[in-house]
Amino acid sequence: MNVLVINAGSSSLKYQLIEMTDESVLAKGIVERIGAEGTVLKHTKIGNDKVEIFKSVGDHTGAIKFVVDTLLDEKLGVLSSMDEISAVGHRVVHGGENYASSVIITDKVIKEIGDCAEFAPLHSPANLMGINACKKIMPNTPMVVVFDTAFHQTIPKKAYIYGLPYEAYSEMRIRKYGFHGTSHSYIANRTAHLLGKDVSELKIVTCHLGNGASVAAVDRGKSIDTSMGFTPLEGLIMGTRCGSIDPAIIEFIMNKKGYDIKQVVNYMNKESGVLGLSGVSSDFRDLWIEGKKGNERCMLALEAFCYGVKKYIGAYAAAMGGIDAISISAGIGENDPGVREMITSGLEFLGAKFDPSVNYFYGEEHRISTDDSKVAIFCIMTDEELKIARETKALCQ
Q1: How many CB atoms lie within 10 A of CB 30?
Q2: Which of 57, 138, 140, 371 would you label with 225, given CA atoms 20 to 30 Å apart?
Q3: DSSP assignment of 56-102, as one string?
């Protein structure tokens, strides 16, 4: 069974084709600059070098056709017929309160994704364009939507409600939704596998640390809290996002800088985080290089980020009434030994003993706690595409 995984953005479209018998990736890539000059498909047939193909593509339907044609290409492709695509799995950012699990796409599902678009105006319309494009090109192929928010629908009301008048929730649907759910679910289940236990037996803090970053409390396989909230702006300091701040700061900034609401939202989402703190970069590699040269603001950015993650680990251990494992993942977590050390050092009071002697690796899966640590600490290689493919297979078999 071949599953095509699609992650559609407003001007890009990522894809992977996964053969589900052994869960091997056959091909993967991204179409960039959809609807603009210089559209390019960066395609890798596994076992071969990446190639770049330039072609004018006006919309997402054209992008999907571009992908399918490449997958069928005699030299670059891995398929002999489009019928060999058994199902398509789509990543969709927001499912609101309607969906606590993945579902087969129907007209009703498409409508409800549209109804949630106000919560994710940059993502949901693009996700829908990807779905509609695939339906147009492959009308008879079953399709599944996997929501980033679904995993967090088990968060109890006391944890997702905000201290606003209740009508903010009941009438405007303002609440914590959480994001990165597909990744947090994968990390938790992979952690349980490495421990040789069922995820239903464990209390795990999962840390998805990329340019966008979040922490989740996974109690016996269910998310009971997470750091991102109504939007991905809440929670940790991130690459360019400020994370949680006193909301009164917004009005103060607007008055001081003469910003309107769009400008201050851009200020918090695009100009803040470790980029804003350091004044150098949102790339943690740059922060370490400059920090080791004596740039205090770069070191401050690193320390503030890691302090925030550590604080959530402690809070979520308390929320779950215990902790069995801490797992760190995503681009930063998988590739930054310094960040892993700053986050996990000093957690002995929780029973988590970090082992620096096994920490210096990049892009690999390892246990980084000592043999006698009561709480296991892992670096996990997250795989959201594989998680989406598994969900798709389960619903389409």
Answers
A1: 17
A2: 371
A3: ---SHHHHHHHHHHHHH-TTT-S-S-GGG--EEEEEES--TTT-SS-
User: What is the rounded distance in angstroms from the CA atom of residue 252 to the CA atom of residue 23?
Assistant: 52
In this structure, CATH architecture of domain 197-384 = 2-Layer Sandwich (3.30)
Nearest to 301 by CA among 284, 318, 315, 323: 284
Rounded Cα distance, 284 and 332, in Å: 7
Q: Is the pTM of this model over 0.85?
A: yes
> Which residues of the chain register pLDDT less than 50?
none
Angle at 365 between CA 361 and CA 369, to 5 degrees: 80
Dihedral angle computed from the Cα positions of residues 193, 194, 198 and 204, in that order, rounded to the nearest 10 degrees: -110
End-to-end CA distance of the chain: 9
User: Mutual orientation of helices 296-320 and 337-344 as an angle, nearest 10°?
Assistant: 50
pLDDT tens, 217-270?
A: 999 999 999 999 998 899 999 999 999 999 999 999 999 999 999 999 999 989
Residue at 388: amino acid letter? I
Q: Which residues are catalytic?
A: 148
Please answer whether residues 203 and 323 qualify as being in contact, where contact means their C-beta atoms are separated by less than 8 angstroms: yes
pLDDT of residue 58: 82
Q: In the 8-state DSSP scheme, what is residue 202?
A: -
Q: Find, among 110, 230, 256, the residue nearest to 160 by Cα.
A: 230
* CATH topology for the 2-147 domain: Nucleotidyltransferase; domain 5 (3.30.420)
